[in-house]
Amino acid sequence: MSVIKAALLGFGTVGEGVYTAIHSHQQQLNELLGVRVEIVAVLIRDKNKKRDIESNILVTTDFEEILNIRDLDVVFEAIVGEEPGYTYLKQAIDKGIHVITANKVMFAKYGQELIHKAKQRNVKLAFEATTAGGVPIIRTIQRLLQVNRITKVQGILNGTSNFILTKMRENKLSFEAALHLAQQKGYAEADPTNDISGKDAFCKLMILSQLVFGEQPCWSEVKIEGITSISQQQIEEKEHQGQRYKHIAEIYKEGKLIKASVKPIIVDSNHPLYWIEGVENAIALEASLVGNITLQGPGAGKMPTASAMIEDFAEIVQHQQLQEKIPALQM
Amino acid sequence: MSVIKAALLGFGTVGEGVYTAIHSHQQQLNELLGVRVEIVAVLIRDKNKKRDIESNILVTTDFEEILNIRDLDVVFEAIVGEEPGYTYLKQAIDKGIHVITANKVMFAKYGQELIHKAKQRNVKLAFEATTAGGVPIIRTIQRLLQVNRITKVQGILNGTSNFILTKMRENKLSFEAALHLAQQKGYAEADPTNDISGKDAFCKLMILSQLVFGEQPCWSEVKIEGITSISQQQIEEKEHQGQRYKHIAEIYKEGKLIKASVKPIIVDSNHPLYWIEGVENAIALEASLVGNITLQGPGAGKMPTASAMIEDFAEIVQHQQLQEKIPALQM
């Protein structure tokens, strides 16, 4: 059985999730792809931290060492922030290594350039995990709605914000108390700025815009408003009218112009995102043939995000096999 | 530009939808696939009925005439019932013609045999439109969740039943009045038996079972209960307790045994299908890595069902092109 060699860049929550998933689903991968998947290296930042990684795997802080691995097929990138992720992925692509990324901040900014580079180099670049965690929105748009013209996307793309708004309504909590609860439950970082300011949702929206419309709006012209200005009292008032505040990232086209915004929107029960509660993410699409469809699921978390990366991985391997005329892809 | 020749089997609501969609999305198809799609023939039942079909297209009641078309690439089957759909598709596959079907009754029974036949003959057989209309549940399972082990599927798979239950609750209608409203709106047939008895949902559930578990349970052992036994009073009582009746088709495995049922289930607001209202369909999946995801959208209707068939079509053409090493499939 042939072997696929993979390296993990980053061993935080998501990187560890990929590590676990590849081990727990090795049989599934064998049967599906007819290959054995081997994690040969893990890139880490802190050499002193104790990690549960098998001893035959290269654990290094030096990306060069990973680039120099012979016949490395694919890297799973789960680093946070623009750098060093961007530089590493450029280098990997240059070396002909397939790339699977979960790094939304980096990808919102450099995605298009990396996609272009990957095409030139004939390697695959997959990014399902950058947007809405385990909800397979990227590949639904890429693969399942290719003929449909998508005219509008609305999403709850930040689980932390949605959790806070849900708890403010359900439990009549103040913003601060709801945020504290989110932190206690591990849904919000110690510094929750990116989540509650709308910046996190904005990155994901830009990735969706690139995918759906082939371009992004000018970033400085996109209204980004977080959830901090909403009071519990406002939420309660709206609830009495059968309405809810939802923090919605939205894109659509007006003529040739992409209109994008990230902000709280008051919706009633006819709206597909009214019902999305807690840390869930959901995306409602408007498309020319199918009409409206909504996808809902876990927007973050160790295994859902790992799931997105592993499924990307399976597709890449299948695509390679088909190109090499190995008859492993069957309908 | 090369031409793909297609025939439509059936020109009812769905067949006409495919016809319309291919015309309205010809440019999209050109750009995506680099081909021109030509409907060369339409199989009809009643020669005397007036139809809006271009005069250069063969319109016939004789399937032999369609089989004899030179270089026919694909048939879209939108006939109702086991026969003659089954026989036609067998013959088409034997002739090396790709098949896209929307025929759930036929496919629930003969799907596995046809899939097997298609593999042997190296043609593609696609059936997204058989289950949940425009909701891309089949290809989500086939393509996007290949590594995940799906452990449970719950679906609202019949829009008519869901519409009736919704209206009985929302508008405090009797079953009969809600059914009458569904008929007035064109959501229910003159004879609604298959919808309200659960038989329609059962067919779709069997298709999902085959897809997810590779087999179907013994049909006679599946409990199938429709919605006719539920009274408006029962619905109202449950509503006061924050609960709803939903007509849910469900499969999961208990050891090696597939457990399947189609029946009204009382759910509360924590259940992902509690929120699915009106004619919408939705499917909630439980999977080993991603956890729970839910897909929601139009379960029937002219353009949503046509959408499913056209998207199947695009995938088939792309797959062929990749096999023929035409570099049209890009990530």
UniProtKB/TrEMBL annotation, chains A, B:
Residue numbers binding NADPH: 104
Involved pathway(s): Amino-acid biosynthesis; L-methionine biosynthesis via de novo pathway; L-homoserine from L-aspartate: step 3/3; Amino-acid biosynthesis; L-threonine biosynthesis; L-threonine from L-aspartate: step 3/5
GO biological process, one term: threonine biosynthetic process
Binding site for L-homoserine: 189
Signal sequence annotation: none
Active site: 204 (proton donor)
Keyword terms of this UniProt record: Amino-acid biosynthesis, Methionine biosynthesis, NADP, Oxidoreductase, Sodium, Threonine biosynthesis
Gene3D superfamilies assigned: Dihydrodipicolinate Reductase, domain 2 (3.30.360.10), NAD(P)-binding Rossmann-like Domain (3.40.50.720)
UniProt cross-references to Pfam families, sorted A to Z: Homoserine_dh, NAD_binding_3
EC number(s) recorded for this UniProt protein: 1.1.1.3
Residue span, Homoserine dehydrogenase catalytic domain: 136-312
Alphabetized GO MF terms: homoserine dehydrogenase activity; NADP binding
Entry binding sites for NADP(+): 10-15
Protein known as: Homoserine dehydrogenase
Organism this protein belongs to: Heyndrickxia oleronia
